[in-house]
Amino acid sequence: MEKQKISTAVINRLPAYLRLFSELEEKGVAHVSSNEISEMMGTTASQVRQDFSNFGGFGRQGYGYDVKYLCEQMQSILGLDKTYNLVIVGGGKIGQALANYGGYDKLGFYIKAVFDKEVWHVRVPSHIDVFDTEKLADYTAKNKIDIAIICTPKEVALETAKKIKDCGIKAIWNFASQEIKLDGVHVENVHLNESLFLLTYKINSEQN
Amino acid sequence: MEKQKISTAVINRLPAYLRLFSELEEKGVAHVSSNEISEMMGTTASQVRQDFSNFGGFGRQGYGYDVKYLCEQMQSILGLDKTYNLVIVGGGKIGQALANYGGYDKLGFYIKAVFDKEVWHVRVPSHIDVFDTEKLADYTAKNKIDIAIICTPKEVALETAKKIKDCGIKAIWNFASQEIKLDGVHVENVHLNESLFLLTYKINSEQN
To answer: For a tag site, which of A55, A197, B73, B173 has the least CB within 10 Å?
Structure first.
């Protein structure tokens, strides 16, 4: 596939495409048209075709796209045909919840260790190691870690991100309620409450 | 404020505006221009002014907008000047994590009870009640509940949503990995993994 600059708007839509294709595949749908995709995505057919053209077009035939092929391609584009090693920095409630959740393994995301300043407070499954935060650089020097999850208090989130970057980790999934932007490392900030606030907006407005 | 039809795109940006205004207020910034807001939001100044015009414009002066006033107004628009009673349906790992997190009280979101088919598995703080899912209708008839959080397995998410709607609850925050759309009830579907998949996309692409 030819490398080209793909717009952020297109990239941000990729996970939603994957979700849709996976749902269709689960339902046993074999083919889908750009019209049908656009209706389910709340966009236009030409937008869908334009998005797809960034990735070679996904081989549309007369009867539409092959759903299984769309799934495989989108998985591959998103890097979900590989596995990743993760660490959690910050073993408070959110960090422990993620470590205890256990649903990521089957997606190929392996949480290897939790780092916290007070290791004795951290309760996680026994296959996940718990270390003092000071051991992070040591640990990542000896273990290949692809993604760090920040679950610290907001006050130390940015300095934590800088330490993670210094350890050579290339990606941060940030759950701290402090937006992080840092050159040289990919950061995704999780804003869980935003969807909750959209609910309260809707409860209070007359709109549906 | 005059009621008017506000576009979904504008509504979806409101929580991000609130986050920005809150950050500015915390930093002690008193005034901000639409230019500055647009830069921080990654949009244009005319877009910002157009968004704000849906809500009366927020009284821009020569020196820009008053940050404290913006915060108060956005809180009020999003309904965050009120409190809400919540129940969690599904007391598995995600449901327990949300109940144990404890950070919602200070935002005015009170988790009152968790419903599960196997109540003996559910470990939550003692001020949160745990009931069999069959008691949901009874409970909501006696207690005013504003929002239900669905944390069930995906297979039963939609039927759970229908039960919640039948109980007269007007809003659903859905953590099940099954998209829910249901007429007559506001639903926000949480897609936590989508931001993780954007990270793996970025790790695997050459883009920053």
So the answer is: A55
